[in-house]
Specification:
By secondary structure, the chain is α+β, with helices and mostly antiparallel strands. The chain has one domain (49-75, 92-294). The protein has six helices and 17 strands. The chain has helices at 2-17, 23-32, 119-129, 176-181, 233-238, 242-245, and strands at residues 38-40, 74-77, 86-101, 107-114, 116-117, 133-142, 156-157, 165-166, 168-171, 188-190, 194-195, 202-210, 215-217, 219-227, 246-256, 277-279, 285-294. A hairpin with a 7-residue loop joins strand 7 and strand 8 (165-166). The longest helix is centred in the N-terminal third of the chain and has 16 residues, at 2-17. 40% of the residues are buried.
Length: 295
């Protein structure tokens, strides 16, 4: 019974958020309201987790003894069992595909992997369930974690750092990310990001970037902003009066790809996370797709 009360509460909350083409809120609503994942307390064994797809670009063979890391995913419990009954939960998944092509269109690498929900992403979900307004999205492609911008790491250019290189950022055209976050923050921004229409409990972010330098992609993130309940969806998405409407901005999901296959950080083998993506030259085309699902 508690599960049905919670479900009714969430659906009423989403009636405030679904006031336009808001794919993120629509998908989360679809996942929660019409088809919440229900598991009986006496159900059989949980289905096996899908294997992580390896990078199909050439990479060193993984050590045979290396254990496959657990797939990165987060389950947010929507209700807890109280003396038996139903236990309802939402599982948040993020599946990435990155392709690198040479300027003449030749496919250089195809990489797939999973990401994990971040603390700011949990806050985003809580805010949306409380009637806050979703904004727009950004995808960032960075070099090795903790490495100051330097040649051979970041694959894009910027005018902020002395090295002249920085992370690539794929943003929605004319949105908060392009007008507020891109200027002066070291990103080279490409306004090519498209947010696909929701299908059931899934939606997809897709966009492209052009490398400004040879480098690697090892730290990736999706980011989004959220506005106060008093804001209109249009104002939140475009960043209009963002200081007055602002509620939060941060990393929704992220993944770190090991720089190379070693005993301590195995990657690229069957059942293992992919190794970092190599961007060989300036002018290479980087295509990114992130499918986010709530199940």
């Amino acid at each position: 019974m508690q599960g049905h009360i919670w479900k009714s509460f969430v659906c009423r909350r989403f009636s405030r958020a679904l006031r336009g083409p808001l794919a993120f809120a629509a998908v989360l609503a679809a996942a929660v309201c019409p088809a919440v994942s229900v598991a009986q307390s006496q159900a059989g064994p949980a289905p096996a987790k899908p294997a992580i797809v390896q990078n199909t670009a050439a990479s060193p063979a993984a050590p045979a003894s290396a254990a496959a890391p657990e797939q990165a995913r987060v389950e947010s419990k929507a209700a807890r069992p109280d003396g038996g009954g139903m236990n309802e939960g939402i599982k948040v998944h993020g599946h990435w595909t990155i392709e690198v092509k040479s300027p003449d269109g030749k496919l250089l690498s195809h990489t797939e992997f999973e990401n994990s929900l971040q603390a700011a992403g949990q806050l985003t979900l809580a805010e949306l369930l409380s009637g806050y307004v979703p904004g727009d999205w950004m995808i960032t492609l960075d070099g090795a974690q903790g490495v100051t911008y330097q040649p051979g790491q970041q694959s894009c250019t910027n005018s902020v750092t002395t090295s002249g290189v920085g992370p690539c950022a794929i943003v929605e055209s004319g949105g908060y990310m392009q007008t507020v976050q891109c200027p002066g923050n070291g990103y080279q921004c490409f306004a090519t990001l498209k947010v696909g229409k929701p299908t059931g409990g899934t939606f997809t972010l897709q966009g492209t970037a052009t490398s400004g330098a040879a480098g690697v992609i090892s730290d990736v993130e999706t980011l989004t902003n959220v506005c106060l309940p008093s804001a209109t969806p249009a104002a939140c998405e475009t960043g209009a009066n963002f200081l007055a409407n602002y509620a939060s901005f941060g990393t929704f999901s992220a993944a770190t790809l090991p720089a190379s296959n070693t005993t301590s950080t195995p990657c690229g083998g069957t059942g293992q996370i992919s190794c970092a993506v190599t961007v060989p030259d300036a002018g290479d085309q980087i295509s990114v797709s992130v499918t986010i699902s709530f199940q």
